[in-house]
UniProtKB/TrEMBL annotation, chain A:
The chain crosses the membrane at residues 5-21, 27-44, 51-71, 83-108, 146-169. Keywords: Electron transport, Membrane, Mitochondrion, NAD, Respiratory chain, Translocase, Transmembrane, Transmembrane helix, Transport, Ubiquinone. One of its GO terms (cellular component) is mitochondrial membrane. The keyword Translocase applies. It is found in: Mitochondrion membrane. This is NADH-ubiquinone oxidoreductase chain 6.
From TrEMBL, chain B:
Its EC number is 7.1.1.2. Its main location: mitochondrion. The gene is ND2. InterPro entries: Complex_I_Subunit_2 (IPR050175), NADH_DH_su2_C (IPR010933), NADH_UbQ_OxRdtase_chain2 (IPR003917), ND/Mrp_TM (IPR001750). This is NADH-ubiquinone oxidoreductase chain 2. It is a multi-pass membrane protein. Core subunit of the mitochondrial membrane respiratory chain NADH dehydrogenase (Complex I) which catalyzes electron transfer from NADH through the respiratory chain, using ubiquinone as an electron acceptor. Essential for the catalytic activity and assembly of complex I. Keywords: Electron transport, Membrane, Mitochondrion, Mitochondrion inner membrane, NAD, Respiratory chain, Translocase, Transmembrane, Transmembrane helix, Transport, Ubiquinone. Core subunit of respiratory chain NADH dehydrogenase (Complex I) which is composed of 45 different subunits. Interacts with TMEM242. GO terms for cellular component: mitochondrial inner membrane. It comes from Equus caballus (Horse). Belongs to the complex I subunit 2 family. It is found in: Mitochondrion inner membrane.
Length: 175, 346
């Protein structure tokens, strides 16, 4: 099972995305976001990126999702929608689940999946080596490169986040 | 809103488009599109009524979907070419997805449904920014990937856009919807010649922006958003009726005005490439556009409909200061003799 762990985690990832895309109440959406964040962290860790995975847990789940959960708890309604309470939501969730199951069966049965890009079986997901250099870890080098070569990206994304806050304050101000 | 915040957000819209136009890494281009989208939402929502909020939501949903499709095309391109540089797209599937994504951002058929609704729901100035500045970024990306665009898809979208832009504008009396359908048709003309000679796309974009800018400023100057309201400008500022006449005929593509220049060049370029039926069809469908421009000029400048005396007066707001209106009017009507200068766009 450990050779196929990335495949299993990615299936759980897609299922939890289907879970919140079928639009239950935001509280339950946040719940599956936690699951998908954790599973995504697991996927990254299997590729050797322990730093980035823990970053996901700390900042995304422990920072942003906590704030989201608190604000949603303040704005929630008396009977929030679950996946089984509303026919539409349950229908969409089951449809997404069905499509994912069919895709998984297609991958498991046939040797090769050639929908848009070639994907030769479940073994394609297994990791056999970490990277070229045996001394430095790739993903820490990537983080270092972000702050040296990628300074422009940091500036642009920082400015986008700042303007995002301004925009949200402006939009929700009303008059 | 607070002037400082408004300036910051407007500068971010400009910065977003600049980042799209000058980046060589696909991810930065995507970031530029998102920054542009995020910052223009409060500009669309300047007045806080349900109409503007609905229009902004529609705009945000369609553009976010287009950005997602763009990201998917970028990733497929990465998988097949192994690099992030924007040169040409190395895989036909990625090229088709990217063309569809950029067509959604521009408002080409079959993704044109958001343009009239969003343009109608927002104020005239916001509509101006929407129909001119927001077209620059997707068009620059189309220009850069033009060697690898699937010709059939692009030409189908272009011809259908010209048809829809002409046909859809026929039953409209609201000026913003008329400008929206005119934008759809002009985008169709621009993308039709993209694969053959991208310089003409840039020329058409330039002339289109000048003419649309002029039209919107004339509308803002007379504070009119309907055909009925525009037909009363003879009473307020008689000079603008003549200017509206000239600019509208230029938009319709009549010689000797400058709106004729892009159409002429595009038809010439298409016939040089041995396609005759296509430019004929495009020119015939441009007649539909010309019809509703002429109807606008008829009711505005050429006729005074009989009405009671108190209907003739427009409410006299204080005169708005419109920047650069005279040069814009001159440029959008008299540029035809400068056609040989289009070689500077290469």
């Amino acid at each position: 099972m450990m050779t196929y762990i990335v495949f299993i985690l990615s299936v759980i990832f897609v299922v939890s995305f289907v879970g919140f895309s079928s639009k239950p109440s935001p509280i339950y959406g946040g719940l599956v976001l936690i699951v998908s964040g954790g599973v995504g962290c697991g996927i990254i860790m299997n590729f050797g990126g322990s730093f980035l995975g823990l970053m996901v847990f700390l900042i995304y789940l422990g920072g942003m999702l906590v704030v989201f959960g608190y604000t949603t708890a303040m704005a929630t309604e008396q009977y929030p929608e679950v996946w089984v309470s509303n026919t539409t939501v349950m229908g969409v969730f089951l449809l997404g689940l069905l499509m994912e199951v069919m895709l998984v069966l297609y991958v498991l049965k046939s040797e090769e999946v050639g929908v848009v890009f070639k994907f030769s079986g479940v073994g394609d997901w297994a990791i056999y080596d970490i990277g070229d250099s045996g001394v430095f870890s790739e993903e820490i080098m990537g983080v270092a490169a972000l702050y040296s070569y990628g300074a422009w990206v940091v500036i642009v994304t920082g400015w986008s986040l700042f303007v995002g806050v301004l925009v949200i304050l402006e939009v929700t101000r009303g008059d | 809103m607070n002037p400082l915040i408004f300036t910051t957000i407007l500068m971010t819209v400009l910065l977003g488009t600049m980042i799209v136009m000058m980046s060589s890494h696909w991810l930065m281009i995507w970031i530029g599109f998102e920054m542009n989208l995020l910052a223009i939402i409060p500009i669309l929502m300047k007045k806080y009524n349900p109409r503007t909020m609905e229009a902004s939501t529609k705009y945000f949903l369609t553009q976010a979907t287009a950005s997602m499709l763009l990201m998917m095309a970028i990733i497929i391109n990465l998988m097949h070419s192994g690099q992030w540089t924007i040169t040409k797209v190395f895989n036909p599937t990625a090229s088709i997805i990217m063309t569809s994504a950029l067509a959604m951002k521009l408002g080409l058929t079959p993704f044109h449904f958001w343009v009239p609704e969003v343009t109608q729901g927002i104020s005239l100035t916001s509509g101006l920014i929407l129909l001119t500045w927001q077209k620059l970024a997707p068009m620059s990306i189309l220009y850069q990937i033009s060697p690898s665009i699937n010709l059939n898809i692009l030409l189908t979208m272009a011809v259908l856009s010209i048809l829809v832009g002409g046909w859809g504008g026929l039953n409209q009396t609201q000026l913003r919807k008329i400008m929206a359908y005119s934008s759809i048709a002009h985008m169709g003309w621009m993308t039709a010649v993209l694969v053959y000679n991208p310089t003409l796309t840039m020329l058409n974009m330039l002339i289109y922006i000048m003419m649309t800018l002029t039209m919107f400023m004339l509308f803002i100057h007379s504070s009119s958003t309907t055909m009925l309201s525009l037909s009363h400008t003879w009473n307020k500022t008689p000079l603008t009726t003549t200017l509206i006449l000239i600019t509208l005929l230029s938009m319709g593509g009549l010689p000797p005005l400058s709106g004729f220049m892009p159409k002429w060049m595009i038809i010439q370029e298409l016939t040089k490439n041995s396609s005759i039926i296509l430019p004929t069809l495009m020119a015939i469908m441009a007649l539909l556009n010309l019809y509703f421009y002429m109807r606008l000029t008829y009711s505005t400048s050429l006729t005074m409909f009989p009405s009671t005396n108190n209907m003739k007066m427009k409410w006299q707001f204080e005169t708005k200061r419109i920047t650069l209106l005279p040069p814009l009017i001159v440029m959008s009507s008299l540029l035809l003799p400068l056609t040989p200068m289009l070689s500077i766009l290469d």
